[in-house]
């Protein structure tokens, strides 16, 4: 990243964008949000991973690292294109709460509606169009496996590939041919979804870029076990001959989590990646930069050392550290793709070797204000105090995993609140308005990039929290209301972007 350019952005998942049909999409409200970003002086829109989600609805547990989430396909655009009618869409229940996504209703309705669009597209000859055929051909390297995976998964009642019949589970040639023939229409349906996703996203991204807005994408370091990636590339992961993981990912026990964190993702067989010159990673990141302008890589520490937990463990406690590929991987990526804008998620306890990896990469790390005032600190809180932010960093009030600023300040201890007041040198601002002072604090830091969650700009409490780590069921649900993007807020943000030299003059 160019260190001499100060930029500011907003973190808002696509799922949180207002829409008529239950979840955020690439439709007109996303375009309206881009306009809001531009008029308020922002240059960055950070989103969460865009992949299709499974159990728990987490964007960090996707059925594919390449595919897009069909939930984000805008139905109103399909109505305009003649693939659907408003009457058809209005006949399905997508949930009626404008504040929260009802994933169960979305799951039960969205694919039925898209199937109608698919049948109409076939009648109209869309699949024979050069544009469609080019998409299928250009993306065959991942799309063929993904579409087959999803079609077979549905044929087996939605279970993970480990519960499929042995022949297709182990990808025997005869079984692959059999299922491709047997499920050809379902496979075509999944290809159709990806075409719509890519088309709509490309148009939205092009619009944002013309407004001077860069898209900051987000990818997890690991893939989900229940994914086309794992099934199609077993040699790249630590799996046994039956396809079961040998070790899985997570984090060790610490002060914050006595049992550690058991994520369950399959671990990479790094020696195999090294043998191929890291081709899978090069392809993955190349594709990411087709979708985004900047890529944030979650759990960057795992490239230096990764925590390996024996498969079947009930907690992370039995795990141990193993060495990752280190800078070698990113040297290979740079040689293949040139210099690209990557953000290293380097939060939490960082060993000196991890710090060195971040320095060697040249990627900006992350600084989170909420971490600066923790009385349980293990020695790194000062890294998160704004006066210590280096230019080559990205500053946040909080991330999608944190409490909102308002609720965080309410829930920390009296001593920690005193630390905040002392640091701000502000003893007069009412508690309910102090979030504004904290936002301004990091905006005037030296960090070249500052990104503020939308909820913090709005002064919302934890009812608007995106994710509470290690929990399932209530996450990834919050939605922005149309009425919350006010002219008053736009003007307020614009004043700050101008004041602190972060204005989008594009």
Summarize the structure.
With 506 residues, the chain is α/β, with parallel strands linked by helices. It has helices at residues 28-39, 75-80, 86-90, 103-123, 130-138, 140-155, 166-169, 173-182, 184-210, 228-232, 270-275, 279-291, 327-337, 352-361, 405-411, 414-424, 434-443, 454-458, 487-499; strands at 7-11, 44-46, 214-220, 247-251, 261-266, 294-298, 305-310, 320-323, 342-344, 365-368, 393-396, 449-453. The model has no long low-confidence stretch (mean pLDDT 95).
Question: How would you explain this protein's 3D organization?
Answer:
- The chain is an alpha/beta fold.
- The chain is 40% helix and 11% strand.
- An 8-stranded parallel sheet has the order 9-6-3-2-1-12-11-10.
- The longest helix has 27 residues, at 184-210.
- The two termini are 18 Å apart.
- The mean pLDDT is 95.
């Amino acid at each position: 990243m160019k260190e001499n350019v100060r930029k500011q952005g907003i973190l808002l998942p696509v799922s949180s964008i207002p829409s008529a049909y239950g979840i955020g999409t690439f439709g007109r409200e996303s375009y309206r949000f881009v306009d809001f970003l531009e008029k308020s002086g922002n240059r960055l829109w950070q989103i969460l991973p865009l992949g299709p989600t499974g159990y728990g609805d987490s964007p960090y547990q996707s059925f594919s690292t390449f595919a897009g989430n069909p939930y984000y396909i805008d139905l109103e655009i399909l109505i305009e294109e003649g693939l659907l009618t408003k009457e058809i869409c209005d006949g399905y229940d997508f949930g009626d709460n404008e504040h929260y996504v009802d994933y169960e209703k979305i799951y039960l309705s969205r694919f039925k509606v898209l199937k109608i669009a698919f049948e109409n597209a076939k009648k109209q000859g869309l699949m024979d169009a050069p544009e469609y055929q080019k998409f299928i051909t250009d993306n065959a390297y991942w799309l063929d496996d993904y579409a087959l995976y999803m079609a077979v998964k549905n044929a087996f009642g939605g279970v993970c590939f480990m519960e499929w019949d042995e022949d297709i589970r182990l990808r025997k040639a005869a079984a692959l041919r059999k299922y491709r023939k047997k499920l050809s229409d379902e496979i075509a349906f999944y290809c159709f979804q990806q075409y719509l996703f890519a088309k709509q996203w490309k148009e939205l991204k092009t619009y944002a870029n013309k407004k001077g807005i860069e898209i900051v994408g987000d990818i997890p370091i690991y893939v989900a076990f229940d994914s086309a990636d794992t099934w199609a590339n077993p040699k790249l992961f630590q799996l046994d001959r039956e396809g079961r993981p040998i070790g899985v990912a997570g984090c060790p026990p610490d002060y914050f989590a006595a049992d550690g964190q058991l994520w369950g993702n399959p671990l990479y067989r790094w020696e195999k990646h090294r043998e191929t010159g890291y081709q899978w990673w090069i392809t993955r990141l190349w594709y990411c930069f087709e979708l985004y302008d900047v890529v944030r890589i979650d759990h960057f520490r795992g490239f230096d050392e990764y925590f390996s937990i024996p498969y079947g463990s009930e907690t992370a406690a039995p795990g141990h550290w193993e060495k990752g590929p280190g800078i070698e991987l990113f040297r290979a990526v740079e040689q293949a793709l040139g210099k690209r804008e990557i953000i290293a998620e380097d939060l939490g306890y960082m060993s000196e070797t991890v710090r060195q990896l971040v320095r060697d990469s040249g990627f900006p790390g992350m600084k989170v204000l909420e971490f600066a005032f923790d009385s349980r600190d293990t020695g790194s809180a000062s890294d998160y105090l704004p006066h210590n932010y280096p230019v080559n960093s990205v500053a946040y009030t909080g991330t999608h995993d944190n409490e909102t600023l308002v609720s965080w300040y309410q829930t920390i201890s009296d001593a920690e609140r005193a630390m905040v007041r002392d640091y701000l040198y502000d003893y007069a601002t009412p508690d309910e308005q102090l979030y504004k002072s904290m936002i301004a604090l990091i905006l005037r830091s030296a960090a070249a990039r500052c990104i503020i969650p939308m909820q913090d700009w709005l002064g919302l409490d934890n009812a608007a929290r995106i994710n509470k780590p290690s929990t399932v069921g209530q996450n990834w649900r919050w939605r922005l209301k149309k009425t919350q993007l006010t002219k008053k807020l736009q003007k307020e943000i614009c004043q700050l972007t101008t004041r602190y030299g972060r204005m989008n003059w594009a």
